[in-house]
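Please decode residue identities from the backbone states below.
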């Protein structure tokens, strides 16, 4: 246990420099083409997960879900970076995210759409913008719970967030997220819930020896063939059932060997241009 604080401090130092590198890119990020933005986003998020020693297990090829709206349960601010490391996309988030230290600014520069919960006029504005983006070929992700949980179960979904998928006649991709340790036990360390501060949440993640994320894509839903309440109920049911199975039949994963060449990476701001350390595991 003595090594944990040392490991956390080491990761924090690397992460700080990686964030500094990201800040320099974020300043001009919106000016890049859509293709280049996706490439940069995927790579930067992948490198961030490598620094935190996080691995992703996927039971299906989620990277192929390139068009439409991805719908997932929401556990942590880390969810955004996890998903962007697999399928780079724009997110719809509550307006409070803008006030989160550093992360809020990053989300803004990554062209996240912020919505004021409970304001019908703002919801109508965002929905119109989402429809235009979807029709233009963009991929988006929403967290219909409107809040975070500890990942044990999911909260009720808000149907209004799925209306743009109907208006744009695109597919909805329900995806379940579960955090676990190397042995497959459910891990609540990433959960950003209750009155937990962002600093405490980050420190909890930095202290995780091996953190693994399970992603399970359930069958896509044709938004054009249904109404939003039915779609919301189906998406909720599919994600909930997938989460129940993931909890009931956890999969142990080979622990990741932490990259100890950190000093060299620090000097390079963790931005090597030739390859990214593998962190995605495909399971059956």
């Amino acid at each position: 246990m003595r090594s944990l604080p040392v490991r956390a401090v080491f990761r924090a130092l690397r992460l700080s420099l990686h964030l500094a590198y990201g800040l320099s890119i974020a300043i001009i990020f919106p000016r890049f083409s859509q293709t280049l933005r996706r490439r940069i986003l995927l790579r930067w998020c992948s490198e961030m997960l490598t620094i935190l020693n996080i691995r992703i297990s996927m039971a299906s090829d989620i990277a192929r879900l390139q068009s439409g709206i991805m719908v997932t349960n929401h556990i942590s601010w880390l969810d955004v970076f996890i998903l962007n490391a697999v399928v780079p996309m724009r997110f719809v988030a509550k307006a409070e995210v803008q006030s989160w230290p550093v992360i809020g600014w990053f989300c803004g520069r990554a062209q996240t759409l912020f919505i004021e919960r409970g304001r019908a006029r703002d919801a109508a504005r965002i929905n119109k913008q989402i429809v235009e983006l979807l029709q233009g070929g963009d991929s988006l992700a929403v967290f219909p719970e409107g809040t975070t949980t500890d990942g044990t179960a999911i909260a009720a979904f808000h149907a209004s967030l799925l209306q743009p998928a109907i208006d744009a006649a695109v597919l909805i991709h329900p995806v379940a997220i579960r955090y676990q340790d190397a042995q497959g036990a459910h891990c609540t360390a990433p959960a950003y819930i209750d009155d937990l501060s962002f600093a405490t949440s980050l420190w909890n993640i930095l202290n995780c020896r091996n953190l693994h994320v399970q992603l399970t894509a359930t069958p896509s839903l044709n938004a054009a063939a249904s109404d939003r309440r039915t779609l919301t109920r189906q998406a909720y049911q599919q994600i909930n059932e997938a989460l129940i199975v993931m909890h009931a039949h956890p999969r142990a994963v080979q622990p990741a060997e932490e990259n100890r060449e950190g000093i060299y990476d620090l000097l390079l701001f963790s931005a090597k241009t030739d390859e990214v350390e593998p962190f995605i595991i495909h399971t059956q």
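Observation: The chain is about 40% helix and 15% strand.
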